[in-house]
Amino acid sequence: MKSSRTAKDVLLVLFDGVQSLDVTGPAEVFAIAAHLVGEPGGYRVSTASLDGAPVRTSSGLTVVPDRTLAAAPVPHTLLVPGGPGTRASDPDLIAWLRGHAPRARRLVSVCTGALVLAEAGLLEGRRATTHWAFCDKLARDHPGVEVESDPIYVRDGHVATSAGVTAGIDLALALVEEDLGRDIALGVARQLVVFLRRPGNQSQFSAQLSAQTAQRAPLREVQQWITEHPAGDLSVEALAARARLSPRHFARAFQAETGTTPGRYVERVRVEHARRLLEDTADGVEEVSRTCGYGTPEAMRRAFVRTLGTAPADYRRRFRTTTS
C-alpha cells in the first residue's frame, strides 16, 4: 500500500529504568503502520537517550538508542515513556525537554512519562492522565495540571497522555488512525491482535481490574464465565450452582474474595460489554440490550444511568462526536 504522504518522525526518549513495554508497544504500532503504508508515507521511528549509551529497562532488558538527544532532529511526535526511572528524573533530561519538546508537532507520554512532562512544565494548564497509581501524585506535585484519573488516555491540543503500559498502544493506534486513516489503524490492530481502539474515555478500571481475583478456583472460574457469557443466566442462584455452593455461601464468599457483590460485578461486566458494542457496531440499543443480557432496553438504560450517568443512546452519540 503506497502513499504520497511525507513520513512523520517519531522520537522515543530512553533513560535507565524505563518500562520496556511503554517503548516497544507504541514503537511497534508506528512501525507496522509505516510498513503498511509504504515509504515514504508512514513514520520513521527512532530512539534517543541523553548520552546515546545503552539503557537498562525496568525488566532488565538493555536497549541501544539510535543517537543522543542532542543529535536528534526535531520530530513530528515526541514520546516520553514511563517506568521506575521517572521517579527521580534526570535534571539534564528535564532541561532538554523544556528546551526542545515545545518544538515537536505532537507531544505524547505513556504511563508515568506524564510525571516527567509535568516536571518540565509541559502539562501546565492542560488536562492529563497517567497510571492510576500515580494520578494523586501528579495532581499533588503539579496543581496546575488538571488530572483525569479514569480515562486510558487524554488529548489536550497537541499533547496526549496515556495511562499505564498497554494504554500506550491504544493511544498510538488512535494517533495512527488520525494520521493515516481507520484502515491502516485496523491493519495494525489486526497484526498486534488487539482492539482497534479502546476510546480514550474508557475507564482504566474494568470490572476485572476493579475487582480482586478470587483465590478459590471455582470462584475464579465463575468470574471468567460471567465475562464470557454476559447474556447468560447470571443470577446468584445460577452462579452458585456453577461454583457448587449454596447461594448464600456463594454470595458471601464472592464478596469476601473479590471485594464486590456478584450483582455489582455482573452489572459492571454487562455495561462494559454494552459500551463496546455501542462504540464498535451499528447494532440498535434493543439488540445490544439482548446481547448483553438485559431483559429490556429500559433495564440497560437504568444500568447505564446508574453506572455512567448517561443513557445508552446519549453515550453512543457522545462517543461518536468525540471520536469523529
Automatic annotation (TrEMBL):
It comes from Streptomyces monticola. This is GlxA family transcriptional regulator. Residues 220-318 form the HTH araC/xylS-type domain. Coiled coil: none annotated. CDD domains: GATase1_AraC_1. The keyword Transcription regulation applies. InterPro entries: Class_I_gatase-like (IPR029062), DJ-1/PfpI (IPR002818), Homeodomain-like_sf (IPR009057), HTH_AraC (IPR018060), INH-QAR (IPR052158). Gene3D superfamilies: 3.40.50.880, Homeodomain-like (1.10.10.60). Pfam families: DJ-1_PfpI, HTH_18. It comes from the Bacteria. Keywords: Transcription, Transcription regulation.
